Amino acid sequence: MRKNRKSRKNRAHIQPPNLLGGYKHVIMQTNSDVIMRIDILTLFPQVFESPLSCSILKRAQDEGLIEIVLTDIRDFATDNYRKVDDKPYGGGPGMVMMPGPVFDCAEHVRKLSPDKGRVILLTPQGQKFNQAKAIELSAEKRLILIAGKYEGFDERIRIGLDAEQISIGDYVLNGGELAAMVIIDAVVRLLPGALGDEDSAKDDSFSAGLLEYPQYTRPEVFRGMKVPEILLSGDHAKIAEWRKQQALERTKKWRPDLLKDNNKK
Ligand code: ADE
Questions:
Q1: 227 membership: H or E segment, kind and range
Q2: Is 172 in the pocket of ligand 1 (CB under 6 A)?
Q3: Last residue of a domain, which of 157, 188, 219?
Q4: Does 232 sit in the ligand 1 pocket, CB within 6 Å?
Q5: What range does the domain containing 247 cover?
Q6: Taking the alpha carbons of 240, 137, 45, 164 in that order, is the dihedral positive or negative?
């Protein structure tokens, strides 16, 4: 049930850029009635501006279901150059995120809300993200997502913050920002009240371990292709049976690995 949505005050907390293009880390206390608070620690807060300011994610913030707070790790650098990365000990290419700024940033952010939060590092070394993980994370009161750049994080960040690692797939992105955004998108749509229609997340692909059944809308005939007769029949039991069958067939054909995964459970 959607609970008292209109009475919640607008609490979108994407921190505004200051005049230098950076982000101020102002103290931002969580409101107790938000379902989830998401903190994003990043070197590129601006990457999140557009995806967080439209559609379901915007509405969820406007209606106070979620609170998203961006914090710029670079604000926690201690030198005049705002340095956050350095060469790897032992040699090798690229730069590694230094522990100091990430630690100070994470400790600052943790204090902004009484919930300790689940700390997640976005990295290709992490556990592979999937719908089951999205469902698991959607039960949390607070997520703290840390997006790194360069060649990765100093190992002491993972150990010291007791962070879990998540990857969104077996490929390497330039940084964790897009991965964090993927996770936020998949998790928030599962929160009660986030979608217009309460049932829409339930029928998503993967929710039952299968791909979604085929969908049709108007017109009834499009370029000679007709909507399957059964969907026009009004027989809800038969439609449900047909959809189940279609979902199973499509999964067998396009993603047989999902069926194997289900058998393993
Ligand atoms: N950072 C770089 N590549 C990534 C990936 N595949 N998943 C999560 N974070 C990443």
A1: none
A2: yes
A3: 188
A4: no
A5: 203-265
A6: negative
